[in-house]
Design a protein that fits this description.
This protein is an alpha/beta fold and about 350 residues long. It has helices at about 5-15, 35-45, 55-60, 65-70, 105-110, 135-150, 160-175, 200-215, 230-240, 250-265, 285-290, 325-344, and strands spanning about 80-85, 90-95, 120, 155-160, 180-185, 275-280, 310-315. The chain has a seven-stranded mixed beta sheet with strand order 1-3-2-4-5-6-7, with helices on both faces.
Protein backbone atom coordinates (compact mmCIF):
# COMPACT_ATOMS: atom_id res chain seq x y z
CA UNK A 1 0.00 0.00 0.00
CA UNK A 2 1.15 3.51 -0.86
CA UNK A 3 0.07 6.65 0.92
CA UNK A 4 -1.99 7.25 4.06
CA UNK A 5 -5.37 6.28 2.57
CA UNK A 6 -4.15 2.98 1.12
CA UNK A 7 -2.31 2.13 4.33
CA UNK A 8 -5.39 2.91 6.44
CA UNK A 9 -7.65 0.80 4.22
CA UNK A 10 -5.16 -2.06 4.19
CA UNK A 11 -5.03 -2.11 7.99
CA UNK A 12 -8.83 -2.21 8.21
CA UNK A 13 -9.09 -4.96 5.58
CA UNK A 14 -6.41 -7.00 7.31
CA UNK A 15 -8.28 -6.87 10.62
CA UNK A 16 -11.76 -7.52 9.23
CA UNK A 17 -10.80 -10.18 6.69
CA UNK A 18 -8.22 -11.98 8.82
CA UNK A 19 -5.53 -11.49 6.17
CA UNK A 20 -1.99 -10.92 7.42
CA UNK A 21 -0.90 -8.78 4.48
CA UNK A 22 -3.05 -6.78 2.07
CA UNK A 23 -1.57 -5.51 -1.17
CA UNK A 24 -2.63 -2.44 -3.12
CA UNK A 25 -3.91 -4.60 -6.00
CA UNK A 26 -5.97 -6.92 -3.78
CA UNK A 27 -9.74 -7.16 -4.25
CA UNK A 28 -11.91 -6.82 -1.12
CA UNK A 29 -14.39 -9.50 -2.20
CA UNK A 30 -11.76 -11.90 -3.50
CA UNK A 31 -10.12 -11.77 -0.07
CA UNK A 32 -13.37 -13.01 1.50
CA UNK A 33 -15.28 -9.79 1.96
CA UNK A 34 -19.07 -9.69 1.80
CA UNK A 35 -21.83 -7.15 2.39
CA UNK A 36 -21.84 -7.34 6.21
CA UNK A 37 -18.06 -6.97 6.36
CA UNK A 38 -18.39 -4.09 3.90
CA UNK A 39 -20.69 -2.29 6.35
CA UNK A 40 -18.18 -2.88 9.15
CA UNK A 41 -15.41 -1.50 6.94
CA UNK A 42 -17.47 1.61 6.22
CA UNK A 43 -17.92 2.14 9.98
CA UNK A 44 -14.21 1.70 10.74
CA UNK A 45 -13.29 4.00 7.86
CA UNK A 46 -15.71 6.67 9.10
CA UNK A 47 -13.86 6.68 12.44
CA UNK A 48 -10.78 7.75 10.44
CA UNK A 49 -12.70 10.44 8.54
CA UNK A 50 -12.97 8.45 5.30
CA UNK A 51 -16.30 8.49 3.49
CA UNK A 52 -17.06 5.20 1.75
CA UNK A 53 -20.42 4.50 0.20
CA UNK A 54 -21.35 0.87 -0.31
CA UNK A 55 -21.75 1.45 -4.03
CA UNK A 56 -18.20 2.88 -4.18
CA UNK A 57 -16.82 -0.40 -2.86
CA UNK A 58 -18.65 -2.41 -5.50
CA UNK A 59 -17.48 0.04 -8.15
CA UNK A 60 -13.85 -0.04 -6.97
CA UNK A 61 -13.21 -3.19 -4.88
CA UNK A 62 -9.42 -3.10 -5.51
CA UNK A 63 -7.62 -1.31 -2.70
CA UNK A 64 -5.66 1.18 -4.83
CA UNK A 65 -8.71 1.96 -6.97
CA UNK A 66 -10.86 2.56 -3.91
CA UNK A 67 -8.22 4.84 -2.39
CA UNK A 68 -8.03 6.84 -5.62
CA UNK A 69 -11.82 7.18 -5.68
CA UNK A 70 -11.89 8.34 -2.05
CA UNK A 71 -9.19 10.93 -2.62
CA UNK A 72 -11.02 12.26 -5.68
CA UNK A 73 -14.29 12.66 -3.76
CA UNK A 74 -12.92 13.44 -0.32
CA UNK A 75 -15.66 14.46 2.12
CA UNK A 76 -16.42 13.71 5.73
CA UNK A 77 -18.93 10.96 6.41
CA UNK A 78 -20.21 12.50 9.64
CA UNK A 79 -23.04 14.29 7.83
CA UNK A 80 -24.15 11.22 5.89
CA UNK A 81 -26.65 8.63 7.04
CA UNK A 82 -24.99 5.22 6.85
CA UNK A 83 -26.92 2.29 5.41
CA UNK A 84 -26.40 -0.78 7.60
CA UNK A 85 -28.87 -3.14 5.92
CA UNK A 86 -31.30 -2.67 3.06
CA UNK A 87 -34.31 -4.94 2.74
CA UNK A 88 -37.46 -4.99 0.64
CA UNK A 89 -39.31 -3.71 3.72
CA UNK A 90 -40.08 0.00 3.29
CA UNK A 91 -39.94 0.54 7.07
CA UNK A 92 -36.70 1.92 8.55
CA UNK A 93 -34.93 2.13 11.91
CA UNK A 94 -32.30 4.79 12.68
CA UNK A 95 -29.58 3.98 15.24
CA UNK A 96 -27.94 6.93 16.99
CA UNK A 97 -24.21 6.88 17.89
CA UNK A 98 -23.07 6.21 21.42
CA UNK A 99 -21.64 8.89 23.68
CA UNK A 100 -18.24 8.19 22.12
CA UNK A 101 -19.59 8.93 18.66
CA UNK A 102 -19.36 5.32 17.49
CA UNK A 103 -22.12 3.33 15.81
CA UNK A 104 -20.12 0.09 15.79
CA UNK A 105 -22.70 -1.37 18.20
CA UNK A 106 -25.39 -0.86 15.55
CA UNK A 107 -23.27 -2.59 12.89
CA UNK A 108 -22.85 -5.60 15.17
CA UNK A 109 -26.52 -5.55 16.16
CA UNK A 110 -27.68 -5.43 12.54
CA UNK A 111 -25.96 -8.75 11.93
CA UNK A 112 -28.00 -10.36 14.74
CA UNK A 113 -31.41 -8.93 13.90
CA UNK A 114 -33.69 -11.17 11.82
CA UNK A 115 -34.63 -9.92 8.38
CA UNK A 116 -37.04 -7.03 8.77
CA UNK A 117 -36.80 -3.26 8.35
CA UNK A 118 -34.01 -1.37 6.62
CA UNK A 119 -31.44 -0.21 9.16
CA UNK A 120 -29.45 3.03 9.22
CA UNK A 121 -26.85 4.63 11.48
CA UNK A 122 -26.85 8.37 12.17
CA UNK A 123 -23.25 9.60 12.66
CA UNK A 124 -22.47 12.70 14.65
CA UNK A 125 -22.63 15.88 12.57
CA UNK A 126 -19.27 17.39 11.68
CA UNK A 127 -19.57 20.61 13.67
CA UNK A 128 -17.86 22.23 16.64
CA UNK A 129 -19.50 20.47 19.59
CA UNK A 130 -18.22 23.09 22.02
CA UNK A 131 -20.56 25.69 20.49
CA UNK A 132 -23.62 23.48 19.96
CA UNK A 133 -26.32 22.39 22.40
CA UNK A 134 -27.88 18.93 22.29
CA UNK A 135 -30.97 20.53 20.78
CA UNK A 136 -28.87 22.03 17.96
CA UNK A 137 -27.08 18.72 17.34
CA UNK A 138 -30.42 16.89 17.32
CA UNK A 139 -31.75 19.38 14.77
CA UNK A 140 -28.85 18.59 12.43
CA UNK A 141 -29.48 14.87 12.88
CA UNK A 142 -33.17 15.31 12.09
CA UNK A 143 -32.29 17.14 8.87
CA UNK A 144 -30.07 14.22 7.82
CA UNK A 145 -32.69 11.63 8.78
CA UNK A 146 -35.44 13.41 6.84
CA UNK A 147 -33.30 13.38 3.70
CA UNK A 148 -33.58 9.58 3.87
CA UNK A 149 -37.15 9.35 5.22
CA UNK A 150 -39.19 12.45 4.53
CA UNK A 151 -42.06 11.79 6.93
CA UNK A 152 -43.01 9.61 9.89
CA UNK A 153 -43.67 7.50 11.69
CA UNK A 154 -40.04 7.27 12.75
CA UNK A 155 -38.28 4.48 14.62
CA UNK A 156 -35.19 5.41 16.64
CA UNK A 157 -32.77 3.59 18.94
CA UNK A 158 -29.62 4.53 20.83
CA UNK A 159 -27.07 2.93 23.14
CA UNK A 160 -25.63 4.33 26.38
CA UNK A 161 -25.64 8.13 26.59
CA UNK A 162 -26.35 8.18 22.85
CA UNK A 163 -29.85 7.06 23.78
CA UNK A 164 -30.47 10.45 25.37
CA UNK A 165 -29.46 11.98 22.03
CA UNK A 166 -32.11 9.76 20.41
CA UNK A 167 -34.66 11.20 22.86
CA UNK A 168 -33.63 14.74 21.82
CA UNK A 169 -34.03 13.75 18.16
CA UNK A 170 -37.51 12.39 18.94
CA UNK A 171 -38.31 15.69 20.65
CA UNK A 172 -37.38 17.60 17.49
CA UNK A 173 -39.40 15.29 15.24
CA UNK A 174 -42.49 15.67 17.45
CA UNK A 175 -42.06 19.45 17.40
CA UNK A 176 -42.16 19.28 13.59
CA UNK A 177 -45.49 17.45 13.73
CA UNK A 178 -44.05 14.02 12.94
CA UNK A 179 -44.89 10.76 14.70
CA UNK A 180 -42.28 8.72 16.58
CA UNK A 181 -43.60 5.17 16.78
CA UNK A 182 -40.58 3.60 18.47
CA UNK A 183 -37.83 4.85 20.77
CA UNK A 184 -35.46 2.13 21.95
CA UNK A 185 -33.00 2.98 24.73
CA UNK A 186 -30.25 0.37 25.08
CA UNK A 187 -29.21 0.60 28.75
CA UNK A 188 -29.55 4.37 28.85
CA UNK A 189 -29.51 6.48 32.02
CA UNK A 190 -31.43 9.73 32.24
CA UNK A 191 -28.75 12.42 31.76
CA UNK A 192 -27.28 13.60 35.04
CA UNK A 193 -27.52 17.29 35.74
CA UNK A 194 -24.29 19.29 35.84
CA UNK A 195 -24.06 19.58 39.63
CA UNK A 196 -20.34 20.33 39.73
CA UNK A 197 -17.66 21.99 37.68
CA UNK A 198 -16.20 19.69 35.06
CA UNK A 199 -12.59 19.72 34.00
CA UNK A 200 -11.17 19.57 30.52
CA UNK A 201 -10.94 16.51 28.28
CA UNK A 202 -7.73 15.32 29.98
CA UNK A 203 -9.22 15.46 33.49
CA UNK A 204 -12.37 13.72 32.28
CA UNK A 205 -10.27 10.90 30.84
CA UNK A 206 -8.37 10.47 34.11
CA UNK A 207 -11.76 10.13 35.82
CA UNK A 208 -12.70 7.49 33.25
CA UNK A 209 -9.53 5.53 34.02
CA UNK A 210 -10.34 5.61 37.74
CA UNK A 211 -13.94 4.49 37.07
CA UNK A 212 -12.64 1.64 34.93
CA UNK A 213 -10.28 0.56 37.71
CA UNK A 214 -13.15 0.51 40.20
CA UNK A 215 -15.43 -1.46 37.86
CA UNK A 216 -12.75 -4.01 37.05
CA UNK A 217 -11.71 -4.38 40.69
CA UNK A 218 -8.10 -3.54 39.86
CA UNK A 219 -5.83 -0.69 40.79
CA UNK A 220 -4.20 1.53 38.21
CA UNK A 221 -0.90 -0.07 37.29
CA UNK A 222 1.03 3.16 36.89
CA UNK A 223 0.77 6.61 38.36
CA UNK A 224 0.13 9.32 35.80
CA UNK A 225 2.30 12.37 36.43
CA UNK A 226 0.43 15.63 36.95
CA UNK A 227 2.03 17.11 33.84
CA UNK A 228 0.97 14.21 31.56
CA UNK A 229 -0.61 15.56 28.38
CA UNK A 230 -3.79 14.25 26.74
CA UNK A 231 -1.87 12.01 24.32
CA UNK A 232 -0.09 10.29 27.24
CA UNK A 233 -3.34 9.82 29.15
CA UNK A 234 -5.02 8.43 25.99
CA UNK A 235 -2.24 5.84 25.62
CA UNK A 236 -2.58 4.84 29.27
CA UNK A 237 -6.36 4.54 29.02
CA UNK A 238 -6.09 2.37 25.91
CA UNK A 239 -3.43 0.18 27.52
CA UNK A 240 -5.69 -0.38 30.52
CA UNK A 241 -8.70 -1.11 28.32
CA UNK A 242 -10.64 1.88 29.65
CA UNK A 243 -11.31 3.23 26.14
CA UNK A 244 -11.29 1.66 22.64
CA UNK A 245 -8.05 1.55 20.66
CA UNK A 246 -9.53 3.72 17.87
CA UNK A 247 -10.29 6.63 20.19
CA UNK A 248 -7.70 9.34 19.63
CA UNK A 249 -7.37 12.76 21.25
CA UNK A 250 -9.65 14.53 18.78
CA UNK A 251 -12.43 11.97 19.13
CA UNK A 252 -12.14 11.91 22.92
CA UNK A 253 -12.33 15.71 23.05
CA UNK A 254 -15.51 15.63 20.96
CA UNK A 255 -16.94 12.93 23.25
CA UNK A 256 -16.14 15.10 26.27
CA UNK A 257 -17.82 18.11 24.65
CA UNK A 258 -20.86 15.95 23.87
CA UNK A 259 -21.02 14.85 27.51
CA UNK A 260 -20.89 18.46 28.70
CA UNK A 261 -23.70 19.39 26.30
CA UNK A 262 -25.72 16.39 27.44
CA UNK A 263 -25.41 17.43 31.09
CA UNK A 264 -27.01 20.75 30.16
CA UNK A 265 -29.89 19.04 28.37
CA UNK A 266 -33.16 18.92 30.30
CA UNK A 267 -35.29 16.19 28.68
CA UNK A 268 -38.90 17.40 28.52
CA UNK A 269 -41.94 15.26 29.18
CA UNK A 270 -42.97 13.75 25.84
CA UNK A 271 -45.98 11.63 24.81
CA UNK A 272 -43.78 8.65 23.97
CA UNK A 273 -43.55 4.97 24.77
CA UNK A 274 -39.95 4.11 25.65
CA UNK A 275 -38.46 0.63 25.31
CA UNK A 276 -35.62 0.35 27.84
CA UNK A 277 -33.39 -2.63 27.02
CA UNK A 278 -31.48 -2.75 30.29
CA UNK A 279 -28.38 -4.78 31.13
CA UNK A 280 -29.56 -7.24 33.78
CA UNK A 281 -26.08 -7.74 35.27
CA UNK A 282 -25.36 -4.04 35.62
CA UNK A 283 -25.47 -2.56 39.09
CA UNK A 284 -28.90 -1.06 39.70
CA UNK A 285 -28.85 2.62 40.75
CA UNK A 286 -30.34 3.56 44.09
CA UNK A 287 -34.00 3.97 43.22
CA UNK A 288 -34.82 6.26 46.13
CA UNK A 289 -31.90 8.59 45.44
CA UNK A 290 -32.88 8.92 41.80
CA UNK A 291 -36.56 9.38 42.60
CA UNK A 292 -37.47 6.37 40.52
CA UNK A 293 -40.63 4.32 40.73
CA UNK A 294 -38.76 1.39 39.16
CA UNK A 295 -34.96 1.23 39.06
CA UNK A 296 -34.77 -0.62 35.74
CA UNK A 297 -36.19 2.40 33.94
CA UNK A 298 -32.75 3.99 34.54
CA UNK A 299 -34.41 7.20 35.74
CA UNK A 300 -36.60 7.86 32.70
CA UNK A 301 -39.78 7.58 34.74
CA UNK A 302 -38.94 11.11 35.89
CA UNK A 303 -39.92 12.43 32.44
CA UNK A 304 -42.16 9.67 31.05
CA UNK A 305 -44.93 7.92 33.02
CA UNK A 306 -43.73 4.56 34.30
CA UNK A 307 -46.65 2.93 32.49
CA UNK A 308 -45.21 4.23 29.20
CA UNK A 309 -41.85 2.53 29.72
CA UNK A 310 -41.39 -1.06 28.58
CA UNK A 311 -38.45 -2.58 30.46
CA UNK A 312 -36.79 -5.54 28.72
CA UNK A 313 -33.89 -7.31 30.40
CA UNK A 314 -30.82 -8.34 28.40
CA UNK A 315 -28.35 -10.80 29.96
CA UNK A 316 -24.97 -9.19 30.55
CA UNK A 317 -23.51 -5.87 31.66
CA UNK A 318 -23.49 -2.46 30.00
CA UNK A 319 -20.62 -3.42 27.69
CA UNK A 320 -21.20 -7.11 26.99
CA UNK A 321 -24.75 -6.62 25.67
CA UNK A 322 -23.28 -4.85 22.63
CA UNK A 323 -20.01 -6.77 22.34
CA UNK A 324 -20.35 -10.39 23.55
CA UNK A 325 -22.02 -12.83 21.10
CA UNK A 326 -24.63 -13.98 23.62
CA UNK A 327 -25.50 -10.42 24.63
CA UNK A 328 -25.80 -9.25 21.04
CA UNK A 329 -27.92 -12.28 20.11
CA UNK A 330 -30.36 -11.59 22.95
CA UNK A 331 -30.43 -7.86 22.25
CA UNK A 332 -30.99 -8.37 18.52
CA UNK A 333 -33.88 -10.76 19.16
CA UNK A 334 -35.57 -8.50 21.75
CA UNK A 335 -35.18 -5.32 19.71
CA UNK A 336 -36.65 -7.10 16.68
CA UNK A 337 -39.61 -8.36 18.73
CA UNK A 338 -40.31 -4.87 20.11
CA UNK A 339 -40.09 -3.35 16.64
CA UNK A 340 -42.51 -5.85 15.20
CA UNK A 341 -45.03 -4.89 17.86
CA UNK A 342 -44.46 -1.19 17.10
CA UNK A 343 -44.99 -1.78 13.38
CA UNK A 344 -48.42 -3.35 13.90
Amino acid sequence: PQGEVEEALAAIWSELLGVEKVGRHDNFFELGGHSLLAVRMIGRSADLGLTIRIESLFLAPVLSDLATLLEATATRSDQEIVLLRRTSDDRAVFFVPSGLGSYEYAVALAERMPTGPTLYAVPWPEVDFASHTIDALAGLAVTAIRRVQGSGPYHLAGYSSGGAFAYAIAEQLLAQGEAVAFLGLIDVDLPAKADRAFGDARDALIDTIKDHARRSGSEERRHLPDEADLRTVIAEAQDLGAIPSWLDGEKWTRAHQFDLALRSYDPPKLPLVIHQFYAAARAVPNAAAMGQARPFTRGWDAVVPAASIRVIDIPGDHFSIVSAPEGLAALGARVSEALEQAFR
